[in-house]
Design a protein that fits this description.
Order of helices and strands: HEEEEEEEEEEEEEEH
Largest sheet: 6 strands, antiparallel
CATH superfamily: Hedgehog/Intein (Hint) domain
Strand content: over 45%
Distance between the termini: 27 Å
Low-confidence stretches: 1-14, 181-186
Helix content: 10-25%
Number of helices: 2
Mean pLDDT: 80
Number of strands: 14
Radius of gyration: 15 Å
CATH architecture: Beta Complex
Shape: globular
CATH class: Mainly Beta
Length: about 190
């Protein structure tokens, strides 16, 4: 994790919000299924990954936030030419991968650029389009592992507290889990 990430993410009380229409995979009693973030309840388990495997992580919080917020809409294209999109608030944490060594780090959505590499359920993807819009509600979505596959794109799902000495440790753990696996996730 670069010094920039530590400064941006560890010195503030921040949380990130998803569009309520973003879909996540929820673990059901017999089968997994997709549903919008707006319908996910605290205590359910949602799909993410940890190291080399897909896992389910417990939802710690899903709170509707009212009021106008700027959202960034991203389209990404993976190595198989699959196109996926996600809409997140401007300060949402997006995991990006260094093109030289594939090491993960965080960027705020407002800092993401066309050409940046991110992660989908199908592998590394490149940001191909960015737009922004104002919406009147969003969802503060927090899971135990700190990430979620929303619309099958890996994004942060955590929040940090001001002056909390565990922030650096938490961010390092999230980025370690986001390292590119040696084999495909599927």
């Amino acid at each position: 994790m670069g010094a920039g990430a530590a400064e941006v993410f560890c010195s503030l009380t921040i949380f990130f919000c998803l569009d309520g229409e973003a879909e996540v995979t929820v673990k059901g009693k017999e089968n997994s299924y997709k549903k919008p973030v707006s319908e996910v309840e605290k205590g359910e388990y949602v799909l993410t990954y940890d190291g080399n495997e897909l896992i389910y992580s417990k939802v710690k919080e899903n709170t509707k936030q009212e009021g106008q917020r700027t959202f960034f809409n991203f389209k990404v294209k993976d190595e198989k030419s699959n196109i996926k999109s996600i809409s997140v608030t401007d300060n949402h944490s997006i995991i990006v991968y260094d093109k030289e060594n594939n090491e993960p780090s965080f960027k705020h959505a407002s800092d993401l650029k066309v050409g940046d590499s991110t992660r989908t359920i199908d592998g590394i993807a490149e940001v191909i389009e960015i737009s922004k819009e104002v919406k009147n509600k969003c969802y503060k979505f927090v899971v135990e592992k700190g990430t979620v596959l929303a619309n099958d794109i890996l994004v942060g799902a955590f929040y940090l507290k001001e002056n909390n000495n565990n922030n650096n440790k938490e961010i390092k753990g999230i980025l370690d889990a986001a390292k590119i696996p040696s084999s495909p996730l599927n």
